[in-house]
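Next comes one such specimen:
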Amino acid sequence: MTEPKRLDAADIAAHAKLVDIATLRLSAELADHSTGSAEAPTVAVTPMFQLQVVQPNDRASFQLRFRILLTLKQGDLDITVAALYDVPGADPTALVPMAIVEFANQDGLATLMPFIRQEVLDLSTRVLRTRVLLPAFRPGNLTFSTTPTR
């Protein structure tokens, strides 16, 4: 029996179907010293991003989990959103993590970024009493390595 052709990012983009988008984590903690601001000023921050690929063994699908961690003087935010994709007709073993990460860099993050942006804005305004508005990210502005880590 021959092994199925491994799908590259272009193959995944051509065949993947977005099935669901969900918020997996919403966490905000107001700093002890912060009283917040009733005027909710806009602030500049440097976020830390993480991407996790989750694959079931028995079907041709994958989930992209996109996490943002923000530390501000007013407090901390930790938010994870996820997109679930099915790849109809594909053999589950044809989906390799490196190709999925490349797909995420090219297409998947563009799908999830508006959800992350809205969650950050809502949570920072409600809990930290500070408006945190993430900038627009163009394709290629934010990428994750496709090189396996050891």
Notes: The longest strand covers residues 17-30.
